[in-house]
Known about the structure:
Elements: H1 10-16, H2 20-27, H3 30-36, H4 41-49, H5 68-81, H6 83-87, H7 89-100, H8 106-116, E1 121-124, E2 139-142, E3 148-154, E4 165-171, E5 177-183, E6 189-191, E7 208-215, E8 220-222, H9 230-258, H10 276-315, H11 324-354, H12 371-383, H13 386-399
Parallel strand pairs: 1-4
Antiparallel strand pairs: 2-3, 3-7, 4-5, 5-8, 6-7
Helix pairs in contact: 2-5, 5-9, 7-8, 9-10, 9-11, 9-12, 10-11, 11-12, 11-13
Amino acid sequence: xxxxxxxxxxxxxxxxxxxxxxxxxxxxxxxxxxxxxxxxxxxxxxxxxxxxxxxxxxxxxxxxxxxxxxxxxxxxxxxxxxxxxxxxxxxxxxxxxxxxxxxxxxxxxxxxxxxxxxxxxxxxxxxxxxxxxxxxxxxxxxxxxxxxxxxxxxxxxxxxxxxxxxxxxxxxxxxxxxxxxxxxxxxxxxxxxxxxxxxxxxxxxxxxxxxxxxxxxxxxxxxxxxxxxxxxxxxxxxxxxxxxxxxxxxxxxxxxxxxxxxxxxxxxxxxxxxxxxxxxxxxxxxxxxxxxxxxxxxxxxxxxxxxxxxxxxxxxxxxxxxxxxxxxxxxxxxxxxxxxxxxxxxxxxxxxxxxxxxxxxxxxxxxxxxxxxxxxxxxxxxxxxxxxxxxxxxxxxxxxxxxxxx
Length: 406
């Protein structure tokens, strides 16, 4: 693996050490699995068995108690060998975050424990095509007997093809938002696995249809109980995956240049590894990856700080929504992540394109699979367009408009 630009951290090094042999094992056939579009079900189980699913579970609940930044850094390492597998953790850890930062009920603790033991969570948030006005069409209403029933169709349901549970955003009959934790094995749940993107092909990001699915009261959760830095969380996971892709593209580009047997007739050296122009390309790719890594690292501290403040307020029984210190931390973390988004995205897209300039036509061979890095990066970058984030950051700088007031 390419060395990270993130400063050494004894706590993280201790946490990641037992996972690194597992990550290396995952990488052995990851390129072939992606080419053949084979799900990484077995490999996901290896990470669960290694304890990764318990990283964000509090120590008092039998978990590891890792920081969010630790999770992000680990996802980047997983993404370096398999960005599809790295992506499926996004909704899982988000739901853990929900429950850890909610009311702390017996249900919260019980479900987080089960998730840590390997009951994986997928997502059901977005709908495609987007309804007019952006309103949700998925509904959760009580039947005549008082049981909640969920009906609707979701898309971009990353991780659902691997899931035991799926978190689904829906409206009740008064228009209030709820998150339903749905049993993926219920006969009313149909996972389409029909993601049509040219990247992230084995993430299960396609459709899931819900038809009259019963949901017990304890698994119908008010949307308002969600943690307040969720946007920063979701976007930083994307950055972690992009950083991992950039590292992989650099590593494989170096390996491919080393393996070139001859130079181009217009080149400056018979040995491609001695051609200063080709070396300059690799140096540029390295700089792009370094920039992505550095921007990613710079955004982690502010997200941890927002999480720490929210955790402290909940522990003290205080109301987070009225705390000015938390609001300031949320704004700083939002801006830090938005700034990182432009740098990371631009840098990794550049790196995964430029690397081919050092390799000649053989660099496009399907056996190398170098194109998968650009396809995966481009697909991730399209998920949440950075053009909007640049505008919002500029609106704060020029007009003082807080991103929290959008």
